[in-house]
Specification:
By secondary structure, this protein is mainly alpha-helical. It is built from 11 helices and 5 strands; from the N terminus they run ααααβαααβαααββαβ.
């Protein structure tokens, strides 16, 4: 029995139904939210952050140098006993006029960096465009930053000075003093170990240069996303040229004979006639009246004893400064 397919009734093929317009808009909004929720990865140059810290240290040293010059006419050693207080005062001034007023420190400003509160930094939303957005440090963060950096350094320096002056580590001290000294040493070692691991984490991830920044969630980010790092090698080139030139002079100057150079340049001198017709009674080396007059042989020109003796000892064939004749011996003036 054969069945003809042409005789079968034509039935419509099933087609995929198109989604309504409302579901399309909802799908688009979901995709948009997913795109906004994606964090924009930012990478802050680790070299910039280290350079900023170094520049801050140099700025503090410059301010300290200028402040010490103000008290240079006072009693010597007056500021030496108050050096920790002077350092903490300068660090407090830098903190007061930079971080406290939501401005970058001098080093951060030169490296185009600023502090951002990572706890309140937006990671998604329409306001995130470059990944550098976010508020500065809060008041509590600023105060804790000052207490931990400025006050912490002062307390540590004073504690080290006091413990060394009182000799807590000596075996003759009381057990309480030795126990306090051991506690200070262990705390310092622990802090150094934690700082080392924080440095490794910073080199790997590029966040939180110090332990204080990691605890406070104060991250350094670029202040302006469109500012390029200006690298000028002009000063470095001048410094290298000057260093090479100074090293060459230090190498060559001991090898040169001053009298030989003077004799070589004498024909090119403009006032050679005046020098040749000078006072014959004066020593031609120190140009003064000889205190112990000696004469060079065989030309019989007068010299100071020490001037002529040192020149003859330095050079085996010393030539007279007046007639350029080789001096073979010296003799006291007036002796037969």
């Amino acid at each position: 029995m054969f069945i003809s397919f042409a005789s079968l009734p034509a039935s419509p093929l099933p087609h995929a139904r198109s989604p309504p317009a409302a579901s399309t808009e909802e799908h688009g909004r979901k995709l948009g939210r997913a795109a906004f929720q994606t964090m924009i990865p930012i990478t802050i140059s680790r070299v910039n952050q280290f350079d900023a810290a170094r520049l801050d240290v140099e700025m503090s040293a410059m301010l300290k140098e200028q402040l010490v010059k103000v008290f240079s006419l006072m009693k010597p050693g007056l500021l030496f006993q108050y050096e920790p207080e002077l350092d903490v005062f300068l660090e407090f001034l830098i903190w007061r006029f930079s971080i406290w007023v939501d401005k970058p420190t001098p080093g951060n400003a030169l490296m185009n960096l600023r502090y951002r509160d990572e706890r309140a930094a937006p990671i998604a939303g329409k306001e995130v465009r470059t990944g550098l957005e976010g508020p500065g440090l809060s008041v509590s963060q600023k105060i804790l930053y000052c207490v931990s950096t400025v006050g912490g350094q002062y307390l540590l320096s004073r504690l080290q000075t006091f413990s060394a002056f009182r000799r807590w580590g000596d075996s003759e001290q009381r057990p309480l003093a030795r126990r306090a000294w051991g506690f200070v040493q262990h705390a310092e070692g622990l802090y150094r170990a934690v700082s080392f691991f924080n440095l490794l984490s910073f080199l790997y991830g590029g966040r939180y240069r110090t332990i204080v920044e990691r605890i406070l969630k104060a991250r350094l980010v670029y202040g302006s996303p469109n500012m390029n790092r200006a690298v000028s090698f002009e000063y470095m080139n001048r410094q290298l040229v000057w260093n090479e030139f100074s090293e060459m002079l230090l190498l060559l100057l001991p090898l040169l004979n001053s009298s030989s150079v003077k004799k070589f340049l004498l024909p090119f001198s403009k006032d050679k006639s005046a020098s040749s017709s000078g006072d014959e009674t004066n020593c031609p080396i120190c140009v003064s009246s000889p205190s112990i007059p000696f004469v060079a042989l065989p030309c019989q020109h007068r010299y100071c004893y020490y001037c002529l003796r040192t020149r003859c000892a330095a050079t085996s064939s010393y030539r007279c400064a007046r007639c350029n004749e080789v001096v073979v011996a010296i003799q006291r003036h007036g002796s037969s």
